[in-house]
Each structure stands twice: as C-alpha cells, then as structure tokens.
Amino acid sequence: MLILHFQKKAYNVKKLHIFLLKSFIGPFIATFFVALFVLLMQFLWRYIDELVGKGLPFSVIAQILGYTSASMVPMALPLAVLLSSLMTFGNLAEHNELIAMKSSGFSLFKIMRPLMWFALFTTGSAFLFSNYVLPVANLKARSLLYDVKKQPAEVMIPEGVFYNGIKGYSIKVGKKDKESNMMYNLLIHDHTDNRGNIMVTHADSGTLMFNDNRDFLILTLFNGASYEDMKETRRSKANSYPMQRSIFQRQQVVFDLSGLNMERSDENLWKNHYQMLSIDQLNYTIDSLEQQYEERRLEFRNKMLSGNYFKKLNAQNDSLFAVNYEEYGERSPDTLFSEMGSRLKNLVLTSALSYARASQSQIHSAEITMSNKQKWLNKHKISWHQKFSLSFACLLLFFVGAPLGAIIRKGGMGLPTVISVLLFIMYYIISITGEKYGRTADSDLWFSMWFSSFIFLPIGIYLSIQASKDRVILNIDKYIDPIQKYIVRLIAFRRYRRMKKHQ
Question: Which residues in 234-313 belong to E strands, given as ranges?
C-alpha cells in the first residue's frame, strides 16, 4: 500500500508538472514574439528614412529584419519570461487552482520547480545564443545596414531644383503633371566627360521610364536643343570658342543605373568590433587593450619626465645658466634665483612659462587620448558583462514574475501586461544607467553592469517569501472596488437628478 501511495503521488506530481509547463509555454512563446515585434518596430522607426525610397528588393529587407530580430532576442527573452510567468501564476491564483495545489500538499516552490528548470534552461540558451549566434547576427546586420545607408535613393526628380542623383548629370524640371507623368521645361547638364559644364540640353517637355530590369532610365525629350562646346584644336584661331548646336523634335537620353545597384561591403571591416566578439575573443581583446593602454601611459609618463619636468638646457643658453655648483653648494633654488641679474631672471621666467604651457598642452592632448582609449576598453568590458547579465535576467525576472502573479491573483493580458512592462522598463532604465556610468568610468564597471540585478534580486526573494506564506501585499481589488462603487453611485445620482428635473 505504501508503494502504491508513493507511485500515485509521483504520478500526480508528473501530471502537475506537465500541466504547469503547458500553461507556461503557450504564453511564453506568444509574449516572446510580441516583445520581439515591439523591439523590431522600434528599430524600424529609427531607420525608416534609411530604408524607404531606395528600391530595395524584398530579399534585402527580409535579411535586415531577420538579422535585427536575432540581435534583439537577448532583450526579448527576459521580458517574455517575466510576462508569461506573471500571467501563468496569475491565472492559477485567480481561478483558485493554486490554492487547490497547495491544499494537496504542494508548496509554492514545489509548484514552481518545473518552471524554474525551464527558466534555468532559458538562461543557458540565452547565454549560448549571445555568445555564438548574436555576434554573427550583429555582424551581418551592421554590414547590411551600412550598405543600405550608402545606397542612393530611387530616381525621383523633384520640381524646380537640380537633381544630382544620377552620376554625371544634373537635371532640372520646371513642372510635372502627376496624371500624365509629363515633365515640362527640362534642363540637363552633362558632366560625364569631366570637362565642366560644356554640354547643356533644353527641352519643352519629356517623359521618364525604366527598362524591364530597371538597369537603365530612358528620358524621352520633345522639342528642344542641345548645346556643346567643342574641344579646341591646333587649327583653332586664338580667342575662338567653337560650339555645336543640335535642334530636335524628339530625342532619347539613356542613363545607366547599374552603378546604383547595392554593392556588398567586406564584413571583415567590422569583425573586430566589440559587438561581433564572443567571450573568448573579448577576453583576448580586453587583455590587448589593457596592455596597450598601460604602455601608452608609461610612454607618456617617461616622455614628460625626461622632456619637460627635467628639461635640459640647450647650447645657446648654456653660458647664461652656467653655475659653479662647488661655489654655491646646496643653496636653495630661490636663493640662486634672487642672486641672478635682471636679464637672466627674465629669461628664466620666460623659459619656464613656455615649458609649462607646452607641458599643459601635451597633458591635455594625452588626457583626451587616454580617455578615448579607456572608453573603448570599457565598451568591450560592458559587452562581456552583458552576455551574462541579460542571460541571468531570464532567471531573475522569473522569480519576480511568478510570485507576483500568485500575489496579485490576476491573469490574462490586462493587468499582468501593465505590471510586467513597468517592471521591465524599470529594469531596463537601471541597466542603461549603469552601462552609461560604466562606459564613462565614473563608477566601478562590474558594479554598474550588475546594479539592476542587485536591485531586483532582493525584490524577487521578498516576493517569493510573501507568496509562499500566502500574504497579500498588493490587493488590486482593494483599490479598484472603491473606484467602481464611486462611479456607480455617481451614475445613480445623476439619473436621480435627471428624474427629479423632469418631474
């Protein structure tokens, strides 16, 4: 009987774990893609001007969105874990399923155990993704976005101004008819020979059209003339400037647009950027940068000591500053200076002031250089810490969201979404603030990058203890019910006033 009892209990625990995983994975996948979509929209709002109006093929846009989405996975995972855990335990508490599980002898931590393992698995997966997949995605996205930024906008000739989007030509259109796509009063300057403004074409009207592959732009001109300055020859007379004029009723000008096709840059240009490096590569780069920083600091220190602080006299002034040290012995510099002549004193002061100003200029320049080197080194260290901190945030925010959902006892997409977004924004702001201070070396880098975790870790512990003891620290109904009663009473009072008025 005892064996059957334990077998039945183990079977119930297994069914409970499967039920919790099913309840959690669905919202987790949904919230993950929602968070990824929101972050992707933020990227599109930022770079919309770089993508629109350049005639990019669908494959290029799909690659940009794909690589960018991959680079945002480490940020979307903690938000998905927080929101899904809060929704899952909020639903269980709202429908009294959590109470039923506790009454069956399961503690809160035992109920959370399968989801804890899932959160731990997500943390490990997030770290592996950040270390191996994210650098490649960042490299592809950065290279592709750089090529898109270089890509000129699609040929769209405006009215009243010269358009220089086609290489070697400057085109001006006086007026455009949007219905017939006819352009009037066209002026074209041909600079393809690199000899200046020697060929000009004017036409009363014209039309634009592309070929099937959009490699060439065909401009058909009507009723115009072309003017070209001819090259001077040996037979040309002095002060003579020959010109050729051609009058036409219909003429076609073909512009080669093959040079406007997007060319891919070499990805090796960005492979050493800190966002494109793994943990091992970052460790190697950080050691190299620290060594270079120390060598540069020692080099500047020795240069200042030898060339400025202990300045040697030049040959021109040796006779003026000649001192018989045996005669003066160990007398102080002030005493020696007071015994100098006025001409020698002026020379000493002028030289000292000149050396001091030169030293100040060198120190200021070196300070800027060393500050830039320190910031670049800190960015590599920040990238190293982010691979761990953002991964650890998945586990940390689970211990915030799960007990908080059990406490507030509200499921669905309403209140849990608001609370999780507010918590994540708070976490994100604290992280960005710590990263900013760490980048400028105003505080300890290790503490700055983990400051948000230090803030949320005690919050998660406190919420877990309170939820395990069934203590309600945030009873939403306590605040919502008085507001609802006040609204109901206000509506009833207005109806009563309206009825009294009609009577």
Answer: 243-256
Vertex 373: Cα angle to 369 and 376 (nearest 5): 140
The whole-angstrom separation of Cα 264 and Cα 144 is: 7
Name the residue ranges covered by the structural domains of the chain: 2-151+391-472, 162-260, 275-386, 473-503
Q: Which residue has the tokens 């699609």?
A: 154
pLDDT tens for 300-357 read 888 777 766 555 545 444 444 444 444 544 556 667 767 777 777 788 788 778 878 8
Q: Please, are residues 86 and 45 in contact by the beta-carbon 8 Å criterion? A: no
pTM for this prediction: 0.68
The residue among 178, 183, 193 whose CA lies nearest residue 163 is 183
Alpha-carbon distance of 411 to 414, in angstroms, equals: 8
Closest CA to 84 of 392, 402, 425: 402
DSSP assignment of 60-128 equals HHHHHHHHHHHHTHHHHHHHHHHHHHHHHHHHHHHTTHHHHHHHTT--HHHHHHHHHHHHHHHHHHHHH
How many Å apart are CA 403 and CA 468, to the nearest integer? 8
